[in-house]
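Thread: "does anyone have the structure for this chain?"

Original post by V.I.:
We have the sequence but no experimental structure in hand. Need at least a predicted one for the grant figures.
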Amino acid sequence: MCGVVAGLGKLDLAPAVARLHHRGPDAAAMTSVAGVHLGHTRLAIQDIDARSNQPFRDGPVTIAYNGELYNTDALRKAVIERDPTRRWVTTGDTEVLAAALHVLGPDRALPMVNGMFAVAWADERRPGVLHVARDRHGEIPLHLHLAQPVMAASELKAFAAAGRPMAAHLIADVPAGQWGAIHGRRAEWHRFHTQRCTPAGMNLDQASRRLKAALATAVRRRLISDVPICSLLSGGIDSAAITYELAQHVPGLVAYTAKLDPKSRDLRCAREVAEMLGIKLVEVPVPVPTADDLARVVQVIEQPYKAQIEIGWACLKLAQAMHADGFKVTYSGEGSDELWASYGFAYHALQKTDWHTYRRDLMASQARKNFPRVNKTFMSASVEGRLPFCDPDVVDLALSLPQHAVADGKSRPKAVLQRAYAGLLPESVVQRPKVAFQDGLGLKTAITSVLPDPARFYRAEFQRVVRSGA
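Reply from O.Q.:
Generated one for you, tokens below.
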């Protein structure tokens, strides 16, 4: 996981790269190729040797890349088929992505990628063109500053550091599942992923068996790391399922949970899961935040959304604890609620909306909410967050399932996941009703004692961040 800065024209990227040091404290560099400027800060996770530092060049293609690829063997094979004389010089995924973009081209390479990524690149075969792409679900943020000269960055604060005017109409996100070629005031966009949600005939038992297998594979794919990994464990079924799968492969796994109310059910359930799995649980104290603390969260995640900010406060504390203990990678259950439409507001929406397309669209909306919040909160402490529920096979399976194969009445919207892990996790966790993280932690109530109108405060802080680039 890293920080990406890129642009065209007369730009000094050095201040922007420096502003993203927290995203990549292990190395930083800049280059200019064919009229394109690329800057990078590196959090070394795969092939931690300097040979994998970026910007990374493969023939005419030079990339600045942020993310992880989980199917590098398949990509290497596809490159070798086109270039049989190739010899790999690293063991990481950066070289693989650069080679795939060079040899296969983005139209063929990007649909093949199983991973989370944001990438900017220059191609000497197309001078003066900035290329950008973002993974299929938008797990990794990549923003555009549309004023001339165009600039791209992992976080908005990089634009301000480069002296760019900060106004909402000048800023956009690279769309999830698309790649673009930007030259001057023109941009050509190409979609490389369209999410399927084709209904499949399955009952709850069949679906739960398929889901268990798919999620186990998704976690196993995401074990690639040359540095220590840990897990998040909130006390709900989502993070508990991910932690269970990790525990099958990671000796001495350490899980982290947030602790605000020492009597909360979340904390009690997290302890029960850790005890049943025989893993160490680190309980991270999360104090009631002040207004200044919450303003800091807005600065980190660069969003105005109430739920994201309040969850973000606890995530900042968790990330800091992980970093202090030497971890660079953690795993989260984010994405699960969207797949099962288990939020309270979804029950009424589904009375008038198609089951399959509603969940597809809900998942897609997280490219600007949950997923960037996970990325930015944990990367603020140089920790990468991996999301197994975003695995293509898990998402395709989940969105294909009929409602009766997912939910068992209004009170069990995640019945398919609960049945998949029945007997493998504590009954108190498996049967537990859906509870929002900030509610289960006791954070939502605590914040109302600090801020009489939290939503209004968050909107005002976000506007201040956009204006000032703080």
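V.I.: this helps a lot. The first strand starts at residue 2 and ends at 8.
O.Q.: and The mean pLDDT is 95.
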